[in-house]
Amino acid sequence: MQKKSLDGITLENILVQLVDQYGWDGLAEKIQIRCFISDPSVKSSLKFLRKTAWAREKVEKLYLESE
Prior knowledge:
By secondary structure, the protein is an all-alpha fold. It has one domain: Transcription Termination Factor Rho, Rna-binding Domain, Chain A, Domain 1. It is built from four helices and no strands. The chain has helices at residues 11-30, 34-37, 42-51, 53-65. Helix 1 (11-30) crosses helix 3 and helix 1 (11-30) crosses helix 4. The longest helix is centred in the first third of the chain and has 20 residues, at 11-30. One of its GO terms (molecular function) is DNA binding. It comes from Undibacterium jejuense. This is DUF2132 domain-containing protein.
């Protein structure tokens, strides 16, 4: 199994892959932030994640831990 890396992967790509894998409901269950719970979209979530380091770190961590 190859270990995932964040090298060369955009935040948008990470988010899209996580939504594909878990869906918005599953993602909101794993990371409880409003942009995933209330009327979620890639655009609004990216806007929030780019401004909020702690939330972006949680998303990146989940991406690295997911298969």
